[in-house]
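User: I'm writing a tutorial on reading structure tokens. Could you give me a worked example: one chain, its sequence, then its tokens, then a sentence or two explaining what the tokens reveal?
Assistant: Sure. Here is the example chain.
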Amino acid sequence: MHIVLIGYRGSGKSAVGKRLAERLRMPFYDTDDLVEKRAGRSIQAIVEERGWPYFRRIEHDVIREFTVLQDGVIATGGGAVLDEGNCRILKTHGSVIWLTADVPTIIHRMNEDVTGREQRPSLSHGDSIREAEELLEQRIPIYRRLADTCIDTMGKKIDEIAREVAEFLEEMRLSKREATCREIP
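And here are its predicted structure tokens:
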């Protein structure tokens, strides 16, 4: 079973995902990186040249391929959950962890991430605070529906968040094992 990290950009999915994968000795997959590798260009270039629908098609193909890959930690793009097919795949083949942060924290992290800022275009070409608020309003119900748990990343170090995710996964594993043991006569 994969460990799937969902949430808005700047919530910590990639950084936490890498650390969690190291901790659990699992492969790490970043859907945005895989889309860029497949297309041979940055997300910004993909969107400028071919548009968001084309990017979303490549993203869906990448996510669909997780069904046959070795279990690992997957950091999804913030909007990957907008495709119902992606949601089904991620929920069926993974434990879904929703990483959250408030809008000021997200904007601060996005501004600090020079590489991400250059490679990941604005969705509205407008005010980043308003864009984040509007997109979160749209996406939060989807994140909430998919998530097995939600972890607030504000004011925490990457190691602390990775530990929280690992502890949740261990609790989930133990509760399933205990439930199975109780069912045996």
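What the tokens reveal: Residues 158-183 form the longest helix (26 residues). The two ends are 27 Å apart (CA to CA).
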